[in-house]
Design goal:
With 393 residues, the chain is mainly alpha-helical. It has helices spanning 46-62, 75-89, 94-112, 122-135, 138-157, 184-196, 211-222, 226-230, 279-291, 312-325, 333-347, 350-357, 362-368, 379-383, and strands spanning 15-19, 22-30, 36-43, 237-238, 245-248, 251-253, 261-263, 273-276. A hairpin with a 5-residue loop joins strand 2 and strand 3 (36-43). The longest helix is centred in the middle third of the chain and has 20 residues, at 138-157. This is Tyrosine-type recombinase/integrase. It comes from Nocardioides endophyticus.
Length: 393
């Protein structure tokens, strides 16, 4: 038979040696790297020395080969390692990585920062998530669950936890949502509000240059996200054909600590698409092409006076201000996408709406972008005529 190895984490017999008034307890311990090492501790008596030695062995046993995390590590330490790991992988878009960090620091960390990893139990996580869903929002609880699960999954990889407690929590129940699209009257009010905003308010500073109105028209005519509209270049637009077309192949991002720039791809791979746009969107695009006529083909259609990209947050802020002045409520850039999806679904098909919005799944479009009007196809009346009472023969 081959030589049997002592299992990792196992120690041998304890020997004692008196040194003055102290007693030293010693043993041989097989460490995480497979090597046998001598571990010792001193105490006032043999029992005290043995107790201190076993405490030292327990701490040594919980220490893992990675050396960064253990069950006795704080949750704050895990968050630090997790963020470093995200940066090391480099798999996430910068905007997603920053969103994860924001959700972790603002939602999750305040609830867990004083806990050790071994204290983060299924019941504790479950109560936290259900409290968030009940008292804040389902969306916030869902975001918290995502980042907490990712961080604790890293702790499992580092052998600091035996399992991910988030996976054992009760599934969050999503409340029913009602998709709301803009009506024709709503759209008219939005157009009037952005046209009138700051035109005759007497305030100092340059007046609006018309870009906000044109951005709204392009969003309404293309279903593009606000970042995708702001990322349009001269070379992405063709107004010489009928109907005019534009290629959606980038987006504007503003990562924390980095200057706003055009990302060479939109949100997802399925979001890269070429769409035909109606006449009102084509007219807005022609105005922008005239404004940047002297610029190279790679120039952005929508830009600041210095030629730098407009940030999505700044455009949203301007739109909110314009609508607030006109007392138009509940309108966001995303409402334009829902409106496009609803119109295309009613007059065309749900599949066409999903294709226009750049969704990989029709179910996403149906669940989050199409307003249900509750009207059943009138063809049912003709189909049910067969149930009419028969005339007496």
């Amino acid at each position: 038979m081959g030589r049997q190895r002592t299992p990792i984490g196992t120690f041998g017999e304890i020997s004692y040696m008196r040194a003055g008034r102290k007693v030293r307890a010693r043993t041989r311990y097989r460490d995480d790297d497979g090597r046998i090492r001598r571990v010792q501790a001193t105490g006032a008596s043999e029992a005290d020395a043995a107790r201190r030695l076993k405490t030292a062995l327990a701490q040594r046993q919980s220490r893992r080969a990675y050396g960064e995390l253990s069950p006795d590590s704080s949750f704050t330490a895990l968050v630090k390692v997790w963020l470093e790991d995200l940066d090391l992988d480099g798999e996430l878009a910068r905007s997603t990585r920053d969103l994860y960090e924001r959700d972790m620091r603002t939602i999750v960390l305040p609830a867990f920062e004083h806990l050790l990893l071994r204290e983060i139990t299924v019941s504790r996580v479950d109560r936290f998530l259900r409290h968030l869903a009940a008292n804040r929002s389902y969306a916030m609880a869902k975001h918290a669950r995502t980042v907490l699960s990712l961080a604790l999954r890293l702790a499992v990889r580092y052998d600091a936890l035996p399992r991910n407690p988030v996976r054992e929590t009760k599934r969050l129940r999503k409340p029913p949502t009602k998709v709301k699209a803009l009506s024709v009257a709503d759209i008219a009010a939005v157009r009037e509000a952005v046209r009138a905003w700051r035109r005759d308010d007497g305030l100092p500073g340059p007046k609006p240059d018309g870009q906000l109105e044109q951005i709204v028209e392009v969003m309404l005519g293309s279903s593009a996200r606000i970042g995708e509209v702001l990322a349009l270049r001269k070379c992405d637009v063709d107004v010489t054909c009928r109907p005019a077309r534009l290629r959606i192949c980038g987006t504007i991002v503003s990562p924390k600590g980095v200057v706003t720039y055009r990302q060479e791809h939109p949100k997802t791979s399925s979001s890269v698409r070429t769409v035909a746009v109606p006449s009102f969107a084509a007219e807005a695009l022609r105005h922008r092409l005239v404004a940047v006529a002297g610029e190279p083909e790679e120039a952005l259609l929508f830009a600041s006076r210095n030629g730098t990209p407009l940030t999505t947050n700044n455009v949203r802020r301007r739109l909110r201000a314009a609508l607030a002045d006109a007392q138009v409520e509940g309108v966001t850039p995303h409402a334009f996408r829902r409106t496009v999806a609803t119109v295309l679904s009613r007059d065309g098909s749900t599949e066409l709406a999903a294709e226009m919005l750049g969704h990989s799944s029709v179910e996403i479009t149906k669940a989050h972008y199409i307003e249900v009007d509750g009207i059943v196809d009138p063809a049912t009346a003709d189909l049910l005529e067969s149930l009419a009472p028969q005339a007496d023969g």
